[in-house]
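Handoff note, outgoing to incoming analyst
You'll be picking up this chain. Sequence as last confirmed:
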Amino acid sequence: MLRTFPETVLTQPVFLSAVTTMLSDEVRYKLLKLLEPNPELSQRQVARALGISLGKVNYCLKALVEKGWIKAANFKNSKNKSAYTYLLTPRGIEGKARFTGKFLRIKMREYEALRTEIEQIRADARRQMRR
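Most recent structure output, in case you need it:
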């Protein structure tokens, strides 16, 4: 039986920043975050939801399977016999928890840097308007 999931998962892509490696921490975190509540998503749906290529999704899933973070299992009642569910293993859940904290710290630093830049731009704009 397929579980339903919010349409926002597929209609609001989360575009990832440029990455230097195929399996960056950001991609890994977002992939695990998406799959945990939605293990029945196809690779195509995952690619669309994350705004990355199907090939990159395939590569990342294989890497996570090899690391023991997810288990790929065939759908038992699927008409499409090549359909898989991607279940997080206990090791994957633990890894996701670590990446959640790391991801949050990175985003907070980015937020602070952006806030500082906005304050500087506002100050510059005020100075230029006084002239």
